[in-house]
What we know:
By secondary structure, the protein is α/β, with parallel strands linked by helices.
Amino acid sequence: MALSGIQIYKLLPQTNCKDCGFPTCLAFAMKLAAKQVELSACPHVSEESKALLAESAAPPIRLVTLKSDGYEVKAGNEVVLFRHEKTFYHRPGLFIRVRDTEPADEIKKKASAVDAYSVTYVGIDLTLDGFAVEATSGDPTTFAAAVGAIREVSERPLILISRDPAVMAAGLQAVNGEKPLVYGADSDNWEAMADLAGQHEVPLAVIGKTLDELAELTEKIKEKGVEDMVLDPAARDLSGSLVLNTQIRRLALKKNFRPLGYPLIAFPGDAGDPAREAILAAQAIAKYAGFIVLDTFAPELAYPLLVLRQNIYTDPQKPIQVQPGLYEINEPTPESPLLVTTNFSITYFSVANEVEGSGLPAWLLVADAEGMSVLTAWAAGKFDAERIAKAVKNFGVAEKLSNKRIVIPGHVAVLSGELEEELPGWEIRVGPREAVDLPSYMKEAL
């Protein structure tokens, strides 16, 4: 049973040394009880206390990592049901499934396209995470050959799918030294699959038709020495998967029910229809899947899922930022206008894309506003005349422009007078409120 904050406090050094980053040992104990910090943050806790605190210090959902040559996908360590309560830590891995009955050339072609797929979203490169190889043939040699075909064109992590231990052994041999997910163990084969997972030190997916069955299996498998597990509650419809995923997450977080404290895997690809597959995948991203297996690879499906995942798994307390600096758009000259904005990525890309699309050359000065948008930063005192003037000086703007004219966003027109005082000799212009109006403003007013 999990310990309370006071019980944990009694096992800590009680020196209030602040080495953990908290003002007192009691404050650290309360955070530890709430699963918001790890015991390793305290460098002075005794080995005896570590043993007693092991359960309370462990995250409610175990961290499971898939590894290959140069890549890894992590799931778990989540501590909240809803992102706004704190944040989600490890975004779900998106895997594309191939079957070993497909010709090797088709497997390689599909895998090459998936491996090369990359899109840029607000300055972040989004990619798919790996491949799920399913042994539909039931033949160990065929399965190993399919795994080998993938490895000829991609090094991304794998999920190996077969409930036959002999077939799975061949697949694991083909990726010896890596750490794929083995799928899966059920009530009939769990002992043999657990032995394989333990021998190769890889995570094991556990399949159960009910929560009771899942919990019973994870306990048995854990007793055989396998710690890293992934749960498949075996629901494939929208309603069933939503209910079971939520129940598992609640039991793990709210009740600290360890037998279900593992990441989940979802199979939207089983829907058999790309449209329904997309809906199931979107729900799986939002509602607690750690690994998601898709059958369909198409840019029109992958892009919205990648963007959705990025948005949900971006820490709401840490806005996406771009590097402050002076950016060139459409090869500006010393006579080109100077625009200024904040380093909130969406604000930056909104301005940059509108100007770039117009074909008009311009300099874009990005001031450090701690990742806030223009109005938010101005209201918080993070985007003012002093900061803009500081950015002008720090990035040597005056040395690159022959005209001393700067355009500030229309939403902060009130800063124009103060900026004139901070930048004597500069002409301060007030631009439009919306980025979409910048091209016409630049043509008519500059």
